[in-house]
Please model this.
Amino acid sequence: MIEINSDFLISKKSKFSNFKIQLRRSFTITKKDLKIYYNKPPVLIQGIFFPIILFFAFTVGRNIEPVYLISGIMTMVLFLTSTSLGPIIFPWETMRGTLERLITCPISIKTIMIGSIWSSFIYGVLFSSIPLIFGILFLSSSLTINYFLIIIAMIIASLVFSSFSLIISAPPTRNPGNTMILQIFIKFPLLFISPLFMPIHSIPTAVISPLTYCLDVINVGLGEVSAFGPFGLLIDVLGLLAIGFGFLFLAFAIHQKTLEKRFQG
Amino acid sequence: MNAIIVNNLAKHFESPKKGKPGRMGTNNPQVKMGLIRAVDGISFEVKKGEIFGFLGPNGAGKTTTIRMMTGVLRPTKGNVSIFGKDVWKNQILVKQITGNVPEEANVYFDLSGFQNLTFIGEIYGIPKKIRIERAENLLKKFELYEKRNLKSMKYSKGMKQRLLLCMALMSDPEILFLDEPTSGLDVQSARIIKQLVREYNEKGVTVFLTTHDMEVANELCHRIAIINHGKIISLDTPENLKKLTQEYKAIDFYFDHSVDVTKIEELSSVREVQKVREGFHVIVEDIHESVCEIVDFIKENHFIIKQLNTHQPKLEDAFLKIIERGDRN
Model:
């Protein structure tokens, strides 16, 4: 009879135990991603300066309502930072040969993906708080701020956008440049159809963009009335969750399908 | 007891251009009906505690086989079981007791050697104290301890390969899959890897090894399977495989005098003689008998022998012969 280590026995116990083990291991992937991909001077500098530049670019000399300004910049930064590195990690790791090393470990591809989502989420939340801080410092006199709502919006939206970035990373390419081009074609049209820096009803395509629901929660958090009526907040949160889970399961399905192709031939 | 059972395993890939042969060429038997039959229904068993060599030319199906055995690729047909568990159906379970060094794998360049090991240890769920202790021991054993805090992008190829093997051993695996572990390495690194593979095998670790290096296969493996065009064409011990090439038993020698080639041809134990520069290369049936006869010949003629080298059949010769025979068939 072979001797096997205790973790191996745990994984025989129950689905819930396995889930806990895989969740714990996804945090290990997160730590690795943060250390290797996010904790880099150019990435950090971009993460800090990009929101600051955006804040001043839209504040100085423009007559935008403070509510729409803060919600617009926060949503844009949340979206762009949460989706900045997610699309390139899979192709990068395929190219380097570390992905194959990783998937021969006792973790599923979903665990690797969840780990990647956590890291994008942390990066997105961290740097999208910069425009909020600037907004509070420079524009808070005219606003009533509900921090709880804003934090909820940041957390949910960052998870939604991180899941979205995984869909872009799914093509089985070894060249990170390919997914970077792809993300330009997907991310920027999404920004254009979103009602950034303006009332939500002013753009008819707004309802199909996940950014809209994030904008609306932040707007409400800054004292505005929801664009979706009395149950607007509920619609926003449920809308974001539905889109988020949709993105997540779509990303799982596509990655499961394309993973093999990364190692063919 | 069998550690691994491979049963009728096959992997077919779609050819890049459907209906046309893939990159492997029109005459390649692996390409049929727009499908590349990378592995075509192979079966074998690996015993517990064995070092099992898996040899074959480039494109024969070695890496595809090992990828199916380690749960990277899903078999088109057949299955692999490890200690009775189907690899594809029990991936996490099976991966927990196996260690892998994939051919194209790499370490994380931005992490130090020590961080690479503790990261893998954490992925395997090894408690912090044990993984630190284990990482340090492995780094010492593989002569990487001095450079443990250096980012692995600064490691040489040999050091990276040793680190990969350390990563595979972090979980204290029952089975080790090594895909070309000594390929392109310096002598020192290759020697360390060979020694330690042998050492771990002596402790009971089963090793599945693919390599192009016949010396490594000959030195390490208890049994060897040879794969070509996705099919296993031979499976035996290295000694038995070498028996296929008895004609490669040879002796090289030269004397202080020049000798006519006919004199050597007259020696009864010699099958074939080739004149090589100042000496001879002779093919023999029995090396001991032939050496004795050559020595007698020297004594009779009062020559002085300048050099004499004997050549046993090599695994490389057997490998080439088996591949050629397979291609002809």
Notes: Chain A touches chain B at residues 2, 4-5, 7-8, 10-12, 18, 21-22, 24-25, 28-29, 31-32, 35-36, 96-98, 100-108, 260, 263-265 (CB under 8 Å). Residues 1-11 of chain A have pLDDT under 50 and may be disordered.
